[in-house]
Specification:
38% of the residues lie in helices and 31% in strands. It has helices spanning 2-43, 55-69, 95-101, 149-159; strands at 50-54, 74-83, 86-94, 117-129, 132-142, 145-146, 175-176, 183-186, 190-194. Strands 2, 3, 4, 5, 6 and 7 form a six-stranded antiparallel β-sheet that branches. A three-stranded antiparallel β-sheet has the order 1-9-8. Helix 1 packs across helix 2 (55-69).
């Protein structure tokens, strides 16, 4: 019994330290985001600024602040910087939320075939240059099963709809980067935001 209490106490201490580390990294990423916005509003004095961001900071931010920021039906988001511009991401997506909110339900609609909360992954190359960005999708899966780009596009369109993008974001489109960002250099485990 005494051993069980000691193990539980040790586990709680490790969990608290892990939570504190995640909170610290999330706060560090939040400060970097605020600095990027400040730089974008003319805070660079005309000089080029490089802001390094680590994969662990981004993922800590997603763990700590993600529940309040991610759309309903998306949880446990995680990004990986794989080097040479390659990014991969994973999240648990409630496909029932997407299907219920859509009016289609046709046999050609890929969201009618899968249900429940499943892991969705995507990997590709982030192309940034002269203030523009495009993501070149290479692979995508739902529940570990490869899916066509059209299926992922349905999910992305649904979850990125806004007043600025009433049809959501297109995977093939080139977009202007915010905050006067000129380039994002994706390395292994990190990225550098160039303004």
């Amino acid at each position: 019994m005494r051993l069980a209490v000691i193990l539980l106490a040790a586990g709680a201490a490790v969990s608290a330290q892990s939570g504190n580390a995640a909170n610290a990294q999330a706060e560090q990423f939040q400060r970097k985001l605020q600095q990027i916005v400040t730089n974008g509003n003319g805070g660079t004095d005309g000089n080029q600024v490089h802001t390094p961001v680590s994969e662990s900071e981004v993922n800590a931010y997603l763990r700590v602040r993600g529940p309040a920021l991610l759309p309903t039906g998306v949880t446990d988001a995680e990004l990986s910087a794989d080097g040479a511009g390659r990014l991969s991401g994973r999240a648990i997506v409630d496909l029932d939320v997407v299907r219920e909110k859509k009016s289609s339900g046709s046999l050609l609609d890929p969201t009618t075939y899968l249900t429940g909360r499943l892991p969705v992954t995507a990997a590709g190359i982030l192309h940034t240059k002269n203030g523009s960005v495009r993501f070149e999708l290479q692979t995508a899966t739902v529940g570990g099963v490869p899916i066509p780009k059209a299926f992922l596009q349905e999910l992305v369109s649904y979850y990125t709809r806004s007043t600025d993008f009433p049809n959501g974001i297109s995977l093939d489109q080139v977009y202007e980067l915010p905050a006067n960002i000129r380039e994002i250099q994706v390395g292994e485990g990190n990225a550098i935001v160039v303004q």
